[in-house]
């Protein structure tokens, strides 16, 4: 995910956000990360773990003064820089051990950062990493308007193509992995459009998640209980978030006043974070909107990227409208109490 666009295709985080005028809803306020950069610098997050460690990136120049992005790890006001600036960061993920896996572009390469040591591990686009340092992602070999996208995991050796079966397309991407090795993802056409049912893969076996009555679903996150979240097209041709558990897919509907919803991740307590015109958290049947700092139609629209249960509540990560320059984004988090349900 570039901090300039926040639109890596497989996660589908940016879905054409719509400004929703005149809807007054109580919202959780953001906490902006105090990064060591000028206030109007573009920055964004990729995810958060149960210790409150946040992985993200901000715009920076390399030693050769070329534009690039600087990866960082933030916790309790302290920022640790990861690697050097100068390349576009497509995506990064963090586990509960504080290990960070990230993918850079031109050419695509994926690295593991572990307590200050960086190791190149593969050449696919990372989406998620579990606490056993098993990495899930999407191997892309694009040619013109077509190419190959394949679901892949890495477990310390060569990347392994998991080849989920049953979807109505040859191409797929792995978008989430839990600590039991279960993988959630979806199928794609040759030009990268989502198609067919999302999937749950485990030990060589594929379970199709089903649809919401429309053309496709896409699994974007999974927790250790095997609950899968994502989004798809419903019977009314609207994009709707879903929760799949115990073989049943459930559309979550929409926050008040919204006409679309997209779930991104789910934490250990079953809280789901996602996006509509504003980011939100869903729990026990109710949506809580997250204030992203956007106050008019010309601002950079905020979005959520992750959520983690902390034991006493949860932390959601995201990118908010930059208060110093509303046309840009700024890395932020939202602190959620144990009971965070508010319609």
CATH homologous superfamily heading:
Peptidase/esterase 'gauge' domain
Strands side by side in the biggest sheet: 1-26-25-24-23
The SSE string, one letter per element, is EEEEEEEEEEEEEEEEEEEEEEEEEEEEE
Strand count, sense and closure of the main sheet?
5 strands, mixed
Mean pLDDT: 88
Which percent band covers the strand fraction?
Answer: over 45%
The CATH architecture would be 7 Propeller
CATH fold category name: Methylamine Dehydrogenase, Chain H
Low-confidence segments, ≥5 residues, pLDDT <50?
4-25
- Overall domain count: 1
- How many E strands? 29
Principal-axes geometry comes out as globular
Provide tags for this entry.
single chain; 343 residues; mainly beta; Methylamine Dehydrogenase, Chain H; 5-stranded mixed β-sheet; 4-stranded antiparallel β-sheet; globular
Describe it.
- With 343 residues, the protein is an all-beta fold.
- It has a single domain (27-335), classed as Peptidase/esterase 'gauge' domain (Methylamine Dehydrogenase, Chain H), CATH 2.130.10.150.
- The chain is 0% helix and 54% strand.
- It has no helices and 29 strands.
- The protein has strands at 27-28, 31-32, 43-48, 54-61, 67-75, 78-87, 89-94, 100-104, 109-114, 117-122, 125-129, 135-143, 146-154, 160-161, 171-177, 183-188, 194-202, 205-208, 213-222, 228-234, 239-245, 248-253, 262-266, 272-275, 279-283, 286-290, 303-309, 313-321, 329-337.
- The strands form seven sheets. Strands 1-26-25-24-23 form a five-stranded mixed beta sheet, with no helix packed on it. A four-stranded antiparallel beta sheet has the order 2-29-28-27, with no helix packed on it.
- A hairpin with a 5-residue loop joins strand 3 and strand 4.
- The chain is globular and about 50 Å long.
- Mean pLDDT is 88; it is low at 4-25.
């Amino acid at each position: 995910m570039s901090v300039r666009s926040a639109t890596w295709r497989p996660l589908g985080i940016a879905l054409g956000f719509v400004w929703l005028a005149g809807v007054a809803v109580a919202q959780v306020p953001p906490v902006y990360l105090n990064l060591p950069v000028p206030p109007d610098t573009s920055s964004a997050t990729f995810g958060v773990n149960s210790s409150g460690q946040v992985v993200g990136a901000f715009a920076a120049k390399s030693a050769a003064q070329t534009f690039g992005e600087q990866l960082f790890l933030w916790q309790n006001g302290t920022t640790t820089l990861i690697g050097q600036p100068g390349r576009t960061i497509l995506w990064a993920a963090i586990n509960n051990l504080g290990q960070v896996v990230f993918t850079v572009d031109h050419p695509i390469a994926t690295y593991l950062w572990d307590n200050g040591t960086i190791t190149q591990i593969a050449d696919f686009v990372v989406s998620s990493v579990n606490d056993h340092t098993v990495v899930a992602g999407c191997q892309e070999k694009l040619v013109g308007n077509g190419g190959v996208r394949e679901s892949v995991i890495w477990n310390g050796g060569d990347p392994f193509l998991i080849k989920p079966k049953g979807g109505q397309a040859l191409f797929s991407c792995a978008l989430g992995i839990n600590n039991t090795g279960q993988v959630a993802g979806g199928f794609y056409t040759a030009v990268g459009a989502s198609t067919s049912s999302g999937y749950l893969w485990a030990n060589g076996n594929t379970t199709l998640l089903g649809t919401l009555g429309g053309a496709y679903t896409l699994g974007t996150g999974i927790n250790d209980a095997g609950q899968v979240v994502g989004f798809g097209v419903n019977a009314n041709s609207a994009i709707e978030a879903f929760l799949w558990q115990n073989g049943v897919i459930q559309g979550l509907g929409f926050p008040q006043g919204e006409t679309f919803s997209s779930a991104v991740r789910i934490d250990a307590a079953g809280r789901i974070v996602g996006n509509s015109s504003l980011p939100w958290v869903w729990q026990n049947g109710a949506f809580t909107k997250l204030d992203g700092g956007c106050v008019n139609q010309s601002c950079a629209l905020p979005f959520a990227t992750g959520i983690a249960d902390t034991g006493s509540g949860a932390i959601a990560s995201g990118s908010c409208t930059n208060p110093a320059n509303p046309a840009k984004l700024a890395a932020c988090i939202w602190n959620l109490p144990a009971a965070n349900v508010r319609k």
